[in-house]
């Protein structure tokens, strides 16, 4: 795999960019004031193979306690670098910069005020005055980071763009890219290059498009910062693994990415083997073939362009493929083999089915491999259908895998989609069990998107991509959203799922489950 070259950034004992190995990250879900719990969880992440550990720091108190957590880890022989995750509180970032190896800030809330989802009409002069505040707010942090050898991560999330950015660019990849560039320009102006960037969304199509746009924009301004990849709020189980493999794997396969995190609503150490499986699969794919980069993914025109992508074994039998081009391959580099053939069909109107054979792999390996291989080709708009084979494997399971990959790439919606965060020190309820209960109550609602968020940092923003949202509002308190609008505030958690169902019913989106 030919990697995009990036400037090297040292994070403690780990260097990213400049051809160094891709690093795997995770994040604790403990309270940062729980020193014992945070140390224990960081150790589990490191023992599983995690190379960088992030912890939330809501305020100065939590930021300062990161130093105690770091000292305890070092005493016990763990040298894994720590990252402070900061939202809304520049003072916490300043305090954390001397305690850990990297500080992550969010451009959507580091200088700009908290969002109220209000459109503001700026003149060009007024907008320039607002962006000038970024340098004023960021410079003190850069100086402390420089003094202590601390790296910085500029972490843009689709769900937490500022009202200023949203007013000018809308809820778009272009806005996400500009949100990052505003901060990166300040870093370069003051010759601070120990910076990594992440630019994430729960929607895989938005995430991959935005990262590609960012790479192009940085190249145009002669910036070469390393990139951290992840699909935020990916969920749990097979869905979370598929979305992560499609998004992260598609970019890695094209040489983009220097660190990764698989964000699952599970224990953080469970993320590491999934990330490792994605890396291992991409490593076997080879350098591939030149392709035309597309920032807006459009399906190629064919005689089937009016159909949702078809699945052989579900919609079609092998006997239904007369006049259809089936491009088949097997082996670790099958995606690149298929892509080479696809480029020869650029002007053909023949429907194209992508056939991938994973005979000999177990289910976990098939899930990751098929998500990367077929997901990246679907995102590029190449296919009218997919066909997964694995000798001896259950056909129904293979068909469901096809449906899940198509849903992750937004090509075909066949079930409820859950947008759920992995949880962190800000989460004030049992996110994993709550997600299971919400799924049990609502998973029959085909095509509906439901967000399950631990706190308000990304919650209301990610509701923009969800039809309904369940967001932690305080200890034992939940707020319910329809889109971006908060409908029910601060209700007891024990009532919240019933109230969520009621909200869905009140808006006419409820159907009774089929009890067959």
| Number of E-type strands | 19
How does the helix and strand content classify structurally? alpha/beta
Radius of gyration over C-alpha positions, nearest whole angstrom: 23 Å
Oligomeric state of the chains?
single chain
Task: Give the terminus-to-terminus CA distance.
Answer: 48 Å
What fraction strand?
15-25%
- What is the general shape? globular
Task: Specify the helix fraction band.
Answer: 25-40%
Task: Give the neighbour order of strands across the main sheet.
Answer: 3-4-5-6-7-8-9-10
Helix segment count? 15
Q: Which helices and strands appear, and what pairs or packs with what?
A:
Blueprint (H helix, E strand, L loop, with lengths): L8 E3 L2 E3 L6 E5 L7 H14 L3 E5 L3 H16 L6 E4 L4 H7 L5 E4 L18 H25 L2 E7 L5 H7 L3 H17 L5 E6 L3 H17 L6 E3 L7 H17 L5 E2 L10 H13 L26 E2 L13 E6 L3 H9 L9 E6 L5 H17 L5 E5 L5 H14 L8 E4 L10 H12 L6 E5 L5 H4 L5 E7 L2 E6 L2 E8 H14 L10
Parallel strand pairs: 3-4, 3-10, 4-5, 5-6, 6-7, 7-8, 8-9, 9-10, 11-14, 12-13, 13-14, 15-16, 16-17
Antiparallel strand pairs: 1-2, 17-18, 18-19
Helix pairs in contact: 1-2, 2-3, 4-6, 5-6, 6-7, 7-8, 8-9, 8-11, 9-11, 10-11, 11-12
Offer a concise description of the structure.
This protein is of the alpha/beta class. Helices cover 39% and strands 18% of the residues. The termini are far apart.
Describe it for me?
- With 516 residues, the chain is an alpha/beta fold.
- Helices cover 39% and strands 18% of the residues.
- The protein contains 15 helices and 19 strands.
- The N and C termini lie far apart (48 Å).
- The model has no long low-confidence stretch (mean pLDDT 91).
